[in-house]
Amino acid sequence: MPATLTRANVRNGRPPWGCLPPTMRVLYIAGNGHPADWLKEAFAGDSAAEVLLEEAHGATEGIARLRDDAYDAVLIYHDPERLDALALIEALRAGGSDDALIVLGDLPDEEIEVLCFEVGADAYACAPVVATRTLIWLIARAVERHQLLRDNHRLAEAHQQRLRLEQDEAERAVAAQRAVIRDLEMLEQPKLALDDGAAAAASASDHPPRLLLPETLVNHYRELLRAYVIMGSGNLADELKALGELLASAGISAQQTLELHVRVLEELLDGLGSRSSRHVMTRADLLVLEVMVHLAEGYRQRYRQRQTPPRQKLLPGFEGPLQP
Questions:
Q1: 155 vs 163: CA distance, rounded Å
Q2: What is the pTM assigned to this prediction?
Q3: DSSP state of 47
Q4: What single-letter DSSP state applies at residue 34?
Q5: Between the CA of residue 84 and those of 34, 90, 106, 116, 138, what are the distances in Å?
């Protein structure tokens, strides 16, 4: 049973893939020696699909019709003496046409079919022997192919636009983290004392030079970030705890930790290329949050373990209050 469908089965204005559409609007371009009467009669005698055929005489009129109107497919009758279909298709493709183009002719398939494909045609049918149902399916398959190409092009453009938006979002997030670092630097600037009611101005040269982090620490954090992006925190809990203790024991501040994170994150984002950055940014935010928690816990433990002045213990038998 042929894979046809009625109008009631069409969803979203398009039939399911692999089925004949209920209606196709087709432009027939031919020279004076090949009128469209025989095609109209053939299509009218087959109820598999309704083919609305319009006729254009010659290449000039056909190009004008395609410029002013839209068709599902174009049938071009190849007659080297009156209308060279191969040259016309090559010109249409060069002009950016994405219509389904099918060539009709009198030559056998093996003599011209390959040439039709090479210039951009979707199919070739030998007019004296082709069955009407076969021709309808050739047109439907060509229409379906170009619909898939258009959908793929739209999806590719949407994907590229989404990637651009994600990259812009990632750049704004990194810029915001850089702003946090600058704010912390401003808060850590030493306040200059006032002398006789006059305020002294501070210059950039008055600030102590920023401590440079060891390259081994940067490399270690880079590997942790890459692994965290792939695996998450489940398998890296011990490594993150050890990193927090290492940073606390080395006296690395929260500001320096954030600066280390931003530096490594920028390198990772630059290496993504055309890949998505949203997943990387989400995992990176979780990583720096965990590292900051471990860093704060490391400093808290050191604060509680801080040495206090020794206390003299009471001698045995003098634990209670002294009696008068």
A1: 12
A2: 0.65
A3: -
A4: S
A5: 13, 10, 13, 11, 21
